[in-house]
Amino acid sequence: MFVCLSLLIVGAATVADVPLADPEHHGGYFSFAFSADGHLVAGGTGALPSGRGEKRVVRGGEVVLWDAATGDLVGTLGSHGDNVDWVEFARDGKLLFSGSRLNGLVQAWSLDGAESNVGLRPGTPYSKNVSPCVSADGRTVAFVAETVTKVGKKRVVRASPMSVFDVRRGTVRWKLQGPDVRALAVDPRGRWLAVSLKQSWKNNGKTRLVGRSAKQSIELRELLTGRTIRTIENTWGIDALQVHPDGRSLVGVSRTEVIRWSTADGAELERFSIKGENSPRRIAISKSGDLLALSRFMGKKIEVWDLRTKKVCHVMDSASEALWFPNFSPSLTRLACKKGPRACVLPLLERR
Fold first, then answer.
1. For 211-240, what is each residue's pLDDT tens digit?
2. How far is residue 141's CA from residue 109's CA, in Å, rounded to a whole number?
3. Residue 53, SS3?
4. Does the structure show a pLDDT above 60 at 283?
5. Which residues contact 51 (CB under 8 A, 6 or more apart)?
6. What is the pTM of this model?
7. CA-CA distances (angstroms) from residue 11 to 15, 51, 320?
8. Bridge partners of residue 17, in order along the sequence
9. Residue 146 and residue 122 in contact, taking contact as beta carbons nearer than 8 Å
10. Structure confidence by residue, pLDDT tens digits, 134-190
11. Is 55 helix (H, G, I), strand (E, B) or coil?
């Protein structure tokens, strides 16, 4: 059972804050993730290059593991040679994924020693707005590339195409070209991938890639083949997706609404208002399925909503200090983030 707190103003550290020990070399922190059991926190550090040419040396840019309860450093897994801006555990806990957007390197690290570490090269920088997505067994990972196009004199950054990789073979299973990808979410049973798509439209022969008149929809596609299972139409404004832990419903979040659809037939099950000034950039559903957490505007506002009552039950407002790169524990009781110059784990909800 959870006790939802009404409001917490983030200021000086409380006794419940857990500072995470710094590794020997790092250039700051750029990503965090909790393991499925909540015992470990993974983090990605910034790179510290020095020298030029053959004398160039890069320190930092590593994947780090901490004990979530004590903040002790468990170890470092290796370097990317650049900032590590994405980390994610496979749900089964056997693999940890990490990525460096600009140099395009993605690593799969074996945590139990049963498999070899794997390096993937998507070929282009992946989108800074759409994080890669990993299947529960860690055998499939989806990336959305970041490409730049020109529409007239306007420079438009697009999240397209999307590629789905076979991790063990290091090859592309299937690719989706064309529409802008807004968000990804994978079925916990590994059957399908939900893709929020924004289609371009033509006006006087000119293709527009932005604007409310563009069509937005969500497609459920078979994870292994890319075959379209069903399409949910008229999903304008959905910038974050999460599959409910039972796999029977899909939750989409916009700046103003939460909408839940049935994954069996795409029917809308419910919607409620969460009006705010900014669109949520990261969302999570508790493993019990009754709570939704979201982070707005650089982590300056964290909200937890009760999906049963459709009311906000907790707000963490850090107006004076942003909580960078926040990631929620599976139970939503804790939050890993960069607070000031330090990496730390903060309390979010109390359990009794």
1. 444 578 999 999 999 999 999 998 888 989
2. 13
3. helix
4. yes
5. 57
6. 0.86
7. 12, 39, 8
8. none
9. no
10. 999 999 999 888 877 766 777 777 777 889 999 988 889 999 987 788 899 999 999
11. helix
